[in-house]
Design goal:
heterodimer; A: 226 residues; mainly alpha; MetI-like fold; 10 helices; 78% helix; globular; B: 252 residues; alpha/beta; Rossmann fold; six-stranded mixed β-sheet; three-stranded antiparallel β-sheet; disordered N terminus
């Protein structure tokens, strides 16, 4: 039945899948826009308290989604500081929550990637008297294929999480219902066919994105760009 | 765009600079310690404005560290270095360095040159002439990290020349290269020297030092054991350490 649902092109099913992808890809994009430069800046900078910053960045990788969901909920709820925006129970709120959840992952992992690359380039860049901005830009560009994997890790975390999006999205049918929240709901209702169909699609998406990135990395390796 | 408007790198063109000359170089009582180990100490050195200086000496003598200090990549723990009255960090941008292991960006050969031209705000039209000068124009689109060792070092040299340096440092730039690659690189160095770029290079290759050097600085134990004209140094080294080194004996 689950496979039949997928093959039949069930409109509800694909609406949920579409929203899931829109929310998680948007959050991944935003997290990368924030996380890559932050990771690169921390990677090339030496300042008092850097060790503490690294510990904090690594610790934030394990942020519990429900805690992020709760914090975003408190800020976006009507009585919260950002309540006037009216974003609670909208896809935008879900994007915000997922961005907060995965930006630390992207920043921490990209920091490690960039730091390794910088160790190789540092003397050459000092010899060229590059500005901090030029250094960061060059490192981000040269680490682009490794950073793709970092982005993928962020997307994987975003698309699979349920705790944050269910709190700030509310799992409203045709509005904020995504794959993970729908799976949780349908399972509790005993509608295992839809839950299984969504789970199947989730797995295919995860496999597909991984395969695409792996292909890109292999192509880059062949060209010696990794 | 007319040909007259296209800026190109010319290997025969003399360098022209409006800034005061970096040379002569004066080094006084230079010292460098790393984790309480003294690498260089009490080092004095004067270099003339033109020519090619070869720094030689046994492993651990402090040759590479001296180059990095002169280029402003590391700071001395004692003494001072003056390039025409300025500190090394003030003039790093007017110099370039080629390292023993060329550090190539994960881009195409051409993009490696473009990177320096953009960073130094030079016209990108110089790229092809620079690549042609080092014999790599036909590889402009190839990934830089797939070049052979000799090609990679020539690209590193082209990238260094792209910044139009007044001083070019080379740290064992031909170590572990085949004779043809060594010859190609030496020709580029001689061209650069003829254009007025001051060359300071570290090498263990005595033949190369004889071919390139105008003067030789021989380091031993973190000090200058001898500094003399190449025509005097090779036939008649004054210091016992240099004599032992040139005769292939271990120098302690």
């Amino acid at each position: 039945m689950a496979v039949q649902l997928v093959i039949s092109g069930d409109a509800d099913l694909f609406e949920i899948v579409g929203l899931s992808l829109r929310v998680s890809l948007s959050a991944t994009l935003l997290a990368c826009l924030i996380g890559f430069p932050v990771g690169a800046l921390v990677a090339i900078s030496r300042f008092p308290g850097r060790g503490a910053v690294l510990v904090l960045m690594n610790a934030l990788m394990g942020l519990p989604p429900v805690v992020v969901g709760l914090l975003v909920y408190l800020h976006l709820s009507r009585s919260g500081p950002l309540g006037f925006l009216g974003l609670l129970y909208t896809p935008t709120a879900m994007i915000i929550a997922q961005t907060i959840l995965i930006a630390p992952i992207v920043a921490a992992l990209s920091r490690q990637v960039i730091e390794d690359l910088h160790a190789e380039y540092a003397e050459q860049f000092r010899s060229l008297c590059l500005s901090r901005m030029q250094t960061v830009t060059a490192l981000l560009w040269d680490a682009r294929y490794s950073l793709l994997t970092v982005g993928l890790a962020g997307f994987g975390r975003a698309v699979a999480e349920v705790g944050a999006v269910i709190i700030v999205g509310g799992n409203i049918d045709h509005l904020t219902r995504v794959m993970t929240t729908a799976i949780a709901l349908e399972t509790s209702k005993g509608d295992l066919a839809l839950a299984l169909a969504l789970g199947l699609i989730l797995l295919v998406i995860a496999l597909g994105v991984n395969a695409a990135v792996q292909g890109l990395r292999m192509s880059a390796r062949r060209q010696a760009y990794v | 765009m007319s040909n007259a408007q296209i800026a190109t790198f010319s290997p025969t063109a003399q360098r022209v600079t409006t800034d005061p000359c970096l040379l002569p170089l004066r080094v006084r009582d230079l010292g460098l310690k790393c984790a309480e180990t003294s690498i260089l100490h009490g080092l004095d050195l004067d270099l003339a404005p033109r020519g090619c200086t070869v720094i030689m000496g046994p492993n651990g003598a402090g040759k590479s560290m001296l180059l990095k200090l002169l280029h402003g990549l590391i700071q001395p723990t004692a003494g001072r270095i003056e390039w025409g009255g300025k500190s090394p960090t003030e003039v790093t941008a007017r110099q370039a360095m080629v390292f023993q292991k060329p550090v190539l960006l994960r881009r195409s050969v051409g993009a490696n040159i473009d990177f320096v031209l953009k960073a130094r705000r030079k016209p990108l039209t110089q790229r092809d002439s620079l690549l042609e000068h080092v014999g790599l124009l036909h590889k402009a689109r190839d990934p830089a990290r797939r070049l052979s060792g000799g090609e990679a070092q020539r690209l590193a040299l082209a990238r260094a020349l792209a910044s139009e340096p007044e001083v070019l440092f080379l740290d064992e730039a031909t170590a572990s290269l085949d004779p043809a690659s060594v010859k190609a690189i030496e020709d580029i160095i001689l061209d650069a020297s003829a254009r007025g770029i001051r060359i300071i290079l570290v090498t263990h290759d005595i033949g190369q030092a004889k071919r390139l050097a105008d003067d030789v600085v021989f380091l031993q134990g973190g000090r200058v054991a001898e500094h003399s004209a190449a025509r005097d140094f090779f036939p008649n080294p004054q210091s016992p350490a240099a004599r032992d080194y040139l005769n292939g004996r271990l120098v302690f």
